[in-house]
Amino acid sequence: MGEAYTVFVCAETPCLSMGSEDVYRAFEAEVKRQGLSNVAVEISGCHGHGLCNHGPSVVVEPEGIFYLGVRPEDVPEIVSAHLRDGRPVERLLYRDPKSGRLIARYHDVDFYRKQCRVILRNCGRINPEKIDHYIAAGGYRALAKALLKMTPEQVIEEIKRSGLRGRGGAGFPTGRKWEFARNVCSPEKFIICNADEGDPGAFMDRSVLEADPHAVIEGLTIGGYAIGATTGFIYVRAEYPLAVKRLRIALDQARAKGFLGKNILGSGFTFDIYLKEGAGAFVCGEETALIASIESQRGMPRPRPPYPAQAGLAGKPTTINNVKTLASVPIIIDRGAAWFAGIGSEKSKGTTVLALSGKIVNAGLVEVPMGTSLSTIIYDIGGGIPDGKRLKAVQTGGPSGGCIPARIPDTPVDFESLAMVGSIMGSGGMVVMDEETCMVEVARYFLSFTQAESCGKCVPCRLGTKQMLEILTRITEGKGQEGDVETLLKIARTVKETSLCGLGQTCPNPVLSTIHYFRDEYEAHIKEKRCPASNWERLPLKSRRGVRAPR
Q1: Counting Cβ atoms within 10 Å, is residue 193 exposed (0-12), middle (13-18) or buried (19+)?
Q2: Where exactly are the transmembrane stretches of this chain (predicted)?
């Protein structure tokens, strides 16, 4: 019998929609029919993360042979030629779009070679519905270390020394956040995983939850131990049914193995996690709105203080962390703070997961060390701009982010550097724009989203975004007036400074950054009634009833 193989068939949302479940069943049947006892067939999370439009994808380990566009009718050939005779099927291998050469192993694909996978470390490498796969990959080793060898204070100190900052967008130091909650005296505390991913085009959290749910559960449990909580919640969008399903499976498995519940691992620590499905409102990503939603109230923010660490869920001290933040915690405890702090830039440690999209050759999830330059991400990993066109700008941070012009391509992607150029990290959205992109239209598109998602509680956000959107729409229709730019700036600054929550405080960023870097385009629309971009493409707007087609 030859080498033992494991065939991982991608079973994330994109590949499932293209028929990967049929491919998985075809492999199971064919391996059995050919009597290959040395081959295991498993589902996995996404191993493509940038090649999802070429799915369903299959990886054969331990070789790492990468097949794309696999159909059930291809399976007999893969099983007989590759798994039985050791000859990979060339016609299904990845072909480099620049050189045209075939690349058999996915680690050799340019898209992956310059990535650094910490948060996505298990995605595509384990079956997310089997806890034994996670344990074999080192899972729950950090929980045992934390509970049996460290005090809560030592866990917090380790996270502080690692430099881990919140991956939900604000970048607040995680260790300090845990310390605040730890120091509040209360018989009951809560810790919540914020999995309310609402940015257009962002699917980082969904991918982690679908591919590696135990990493989030382990991180949340360690966090609960650190702050002194006995109950945790995962607030996840109901629009993510596969993530919800796998989280439920993972929670049941963790309880059965003794990683959740009473006296975990004999440590005396008791902790359990419950799921709360959200209805899909962007504002519920804000901490106080999220808490209100869990309490079955309307998801609207409230003024702070008191902060959630003082009075959160049910008035008790509450800590809220993002999916990617919590997925980072186990590997930090396992490998040590110094290891994690050795990755990234001076003030932004570790890695960041970006949803690379727009006018780019290789779109998808990218994980790189903090401080990696925009040009490295766009050209070396993303493959550059398609059709020989030039880069014009990059929008980072999702609908609340800013547009960075192509003339500063070496901008490091970290919290401080992006803030200096008028943008934000946000949750990790990154939209690439080519020379034919109308920047006024881009500002209008992103503002349409935040305007539609405003909860309407505070006047600056409710009315300010509406006024800005009306002006931007008028400009893009060739009806702009002298003074419109100054009015936009005045309203944008007012909304930014006086809104109640982060949605209102950041939603003017696309308007402010495009005026700052591309004011000449606004002037051309208003004074010359023309768009300098050759392709005046109207983007679909977000309305309160969903996506509205351009007029």
Answers
A1: buried
A2: none
Instruction: Decide if 131-342 and 351-434 have a common fold.
Output: no
CA distance 484 to 505: 21
Mean pLDDT of the chain: 92
pLDDT at 326 over 50: yes
Question: Which residues fall within 8 angstroms of residue 335, CB to CB, at 6 or more apart?
Answer: none
296: left (phi over 0), alpha (psi -120 to 50) or beta: left
Which segments within 348-489 are labelled E, that is strand?
A: 351-358, 364-369, 391-396, 402-405, 429-434
User: And the tokens for 342?
Assistant: 């050795």
127 vs 448: CA distance, rounded Å: 39
Instruction: Give the Å distances, CA to CA, from 122 to 176, 279, 354.
Output: 27, 28, 17
Q: Categorize the per-residue pLDDT at 269 as very low, low, confident or very high, splitting at 50, 70 and 90.
A: very high
How far apart CA 93 and CA 140 sit, in angstroms, is 35
Query: Per residue in 208-255, pLDDT tens?
Result: 999 999 999 999 999 999 999 999 999 999 999 999 999 999 999 999
Q: Residue 213 has which token pair?
A: 């749910």
Architecture of domain 445-528: Up-down Bundle (1.20)
Dump pLDDT digits (tens) for 87-140. Answer: 999 999 998 877 889 999 988 888 888 899 999 999 999 999 999 999 999 999
Question: Fold for domain 351-434?
Answer: Ubiquitin-like (UB roll) (3.10.20)
User: What is each CA distance from 492 to 133, 443, 469, 515, in whole angstroms?
Assistant: 50, 12, 11, 11
Q: What is the CA radius of gyration of the chain?
A: 24
pLDDT for 2 beyond 70: no
Element (H, E) at 167: none
Query: Residue 43's beta-bridge partner residues?
Result: 9
User: In CATH, what number does 131-342 get?
Assistant: 3.40.50.11540
Pseudo-torsion of CA 247, 252, 257, 260, nearest 10°? Answer: 80
140: its two tokens: 């729950």
What does the domain layout of the chain look like in residue ranges?
5-109, 131-342, 351-434, 445-528
- Token pair listed for 331: 């590997």
- The CATH number given to 5-109 is 3.40.30.10
Task: Tell me the one-letter amino acid at 372.
Answer: T
